[in-house]
Amino acid sequence: MEILYKSTRGGETGVTASQAILKGLAQDGGLFVPDRIPALDVPMETLARMSYQEVAYEVMSRFFTDYTAEELKECIARAYDGKFDTEEIAPLTKAGEIYFLELFHGATIAFKDMALSILPHLLTTAAKKNHVENEIVILTATSGDTGKAAMAGFADVPGTRILVFYPKDGVSPVQEKQMVTQKGENTCVVAIRGNFDDAQTGVKKIFSDKKFAEELAKSGFQFSSANSINIGRLIPQVVYYVYAYAALVRNGEIKNGESVNVTVPTGNFGNILAAFYAKQMGLPIGKLICASNENKVLVDFFRTGIYDRNRPFILTSSPSMDILISSNLERLLYWLAGQSPEKTKACMEGLQKDGRYQIDDAMRERLKDFYGDYADEEETASEIASMYRNTGYVLDTHTAVAASVYEKYRKETGDMTPVILASTASPYKFTRSVLHAIDAEKYDSLGDFEQMDALSEISSTEIPRAIEEIRTAPVRHTAVCDVDQMEQAVKNFLAI
């Protein structure tokens, strides 16, 4: 049965999956959501015997119903291949009482690879299906990881160009080096003088500028998005929760049907929303534990029902979570509101006008699947040190935030349900912060690449290809602009 997509704000309905992926954002500024969540109607015993690629097909084919089986299988085969440094794609590692779902074995050593490896193929297939003749311009804002992962996915893909905006002083040195050394004649990176929310707001403003869209069309271009606002990014993330549960069943760690909790370090809300969608499909997930750093706007929302971005923006050692406007929360709001576009639109208008909104009691009641808490910088460093000391396992800063919050949840509730924790980045991406937490006196004086060698030694892991590649890579992108110059930066890149 065909699944169609509609805007959370009511302006578009009856949109096919391929059309939604092509558009990225709905015309009314809303996000595309499926008209229903399909059931995961494959027996768990069958899923437990499947490869990652086979599970990916079973999940995605339920959502992307206008793609043929051949088209979808081709996209999956091209995405989940030798660019991952483990055969299993998303392995589970148990350390202490936690099952860490390692989502960082792709080309850019962050979880964004899991979806951004397939999005270019879904998008170019969608363009052919819908007879698109324009060149597709991927426009995206990044808090550190999406930018590199998107560029790696789209580099030199025919019929596409990609421009990434990132906050100049708001990403780690490794994240910045990965972006500014990106190859590909169709890629462009621009640093902005501002934070991630400024970059994201600027990109959304460009997307909603109808006059600019007409100007682009005359020059043979049209926009699409690689951010997690694109449904083609979100649905592939559902896959790894299903795969992880099936792996636990296969390995005899849990019984089929036994409930698990899921803990996710959360910024833009896409990753934890994917777990929520997996639960809606029928995966036996109990609590969704949302972990924030000191930018704890989501924690306050879960506790009070008030979303208020009017607060200081704090730069932390987990920069991919330094976000005050969590775009994907709009999709959850739509569900909380009983699929009311009017309620959703009112919340979004309040956020744009006053920087805040409040949900009603009925919507709050539907939030009971979620638990939110945060870890400050000291708690994050302490978690890295204690996990290494007790188990020998090394966490990156984002995963450490989630592990710290999970410990708080367990102490507060006494809930000993098995937990899958989304490990969203390799510790090699945040080496300086990680080694500082483990032994500042010993490691702080080392240079960036000396630190990577040290991390390899203490963790007994090989330095990832993604890191080795940037040791000597030349800088190719040096542009910097103010927020109000972002549209001009797009024009410069496209030479229009």
Describe the fold and architecture:
- Its EC number is 4.2.3.1.
- GO terms for molecular function: threonine synthase activity.
- Its cofactor is pyridoxal 5'-phosphate.
- It comes from Candidatus Fusicatenibacter intestinigallinarum.
- It is globular and about 60 Å long.
- It has 22 helices and 15 strands.
- Helix 3 packs across helix 4.
- Strands 3-4-14-9-10-13 form a 6-stranded mixed beta sheet, with helices on both faces. The chain has a 5-stranded parallel beta sheet with strand order 8-5-6-7-15, sandwiched between helices.
- It has 496 residues and is α/β, with parallel strands linked by helices.
Computed Rg = 21 Å
In which order are the strands of the major sheet placed?
3-4-14-9-10-13
Q: Indicate the proportion of strand residues.
A: 15-25%
Q: How many helical elements?
A: 22
Estimate percent helicity.
40-55%
Coarse structural class = alpha/beta
Total strands: 15
* Global geometry: globular
* First-last Cα distance: 43 Å
Mean pLDDT score, rounded? 95
Provide the low-confidence segments as ranges: none
Biggest sheet layout = 6 strands, mixed
